[in-house]
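Lecture 7 notes: from sequence to structure.

We start with a single chain of 435 residues. Read the sequence below before looking at the structure.
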Amino acid sequence: MHHFAPEIVLITILSLVVLADALALRLRIPSVFLLLLGSYLVYHYFPAAIPIDLKEHFDSVILFCIPLIFMGDALHLKFADLKRHGWGIFYLAVVAVALSIIAGASLYAFDLFPQITLGGYVALFAINMATDAVSVQSVLSRFKGVAHDVKVLIEGESLGNDATAVIAFFFIGLPWMMQGSIEADDAALEALRVFAFSTLIGLGLGYGFYWLMKFYSDKRGELFTFVIEAYAAYLLGEHFHLSGILTLIVAIVSTKAWIDRDIEIEERQLERKRRSFVQRLRLEGVLATTRERLEYIYEMASEFGYIAAVVIFFVLAEMVDLHKLWEYRREILAMFVATTLIRALSMAKFAWFGQKLSAIKPVGAEGWFILTFSGMKGALSIILVHMIPADYPHRELFESVTVGVVILSIFVYGTVLWAWFTFRPEKERRLFGEK
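Now the structure, written as tokens:
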């Protein structure tokens, strides 16, 4: 007797993607709404379409999907955009997230969740401050009028935000929550160690794969090389008890940045008689790829990430228990409102700094509004909450709150952005003020 479970799952996923995209185009709504709703209905009412126990194989499914999701996001960042908005992305992805987690943990004084300790607050807000680029792109890609600079900030923030949230969760929040106490100095040093070594390993891998890609000229080979790099970076980071996600992001972004730099030089036809040692090491006269082949790589990597995100939606559907969501409705609403207000304040701080620091581009009211409601939660929040040990007494609270916040953020934030762009007659509005 043959078992065709993998084939059936693949047919189900691809069919759902095709159907959701077709309906979203006709209805002019974000496809992520239909994907999330469709995955829940299929998983719970058509079990024959998903003949694999996702709960039993949760870890394997998640580990398979993570590199594909983050690879596609990282490849969207361009070297020129990083130069222009590097400090803005750093603020949004690191400083703002850290401040947001601290602000969330400070709510411990108000007994927002009386069941959990201060360490639990840090872990819970780290989980629920992580954004999801796939959901955001699904919403924003449907509409015109979003300035390129805002898209860059959103994409850059979603990547760095996730890395910061992971470090805060695994190396500060989770140990503190499970042990009941933590040495602040040791936790800070451990977080810095993880950040530094993950970045260094990512840079080393990024350069290695960039150099490797100079030896062949085939778009399929280049695409698969990025896939290999993503999985290798993630596995290597996790193997050394660092942040696999940060290692992956740094590796892909650095490879892509060096490639972009080479292409810029080639397009400007800059001839240099003398090359520095670093330039010779980079084989600057040999291109790793071309802009045309990169377009193919972008498109295919985005599709891989999209499919992986749909798989995560099925995992989310497995975790959805309507009775528990209703039981924890007050906690879910409290967390959703708190994270929304904290994010709005973080974006307002970004706007304020933008007026004071020349390195950060200021945003207007509309830019602040879009950045605030682009903070949809998704795959990473589900992954992190699943990593809480089964014997933790309040794991049910964490899971229910996180699932509820993910669902609310996608539908509420997505609807707000959809309504904003649908009923605004102006297109291609300038969201960044002149310096």
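Residues 26 and 264 are 39 Å apart (CA to CA). Keep this in mind for problem set 3.
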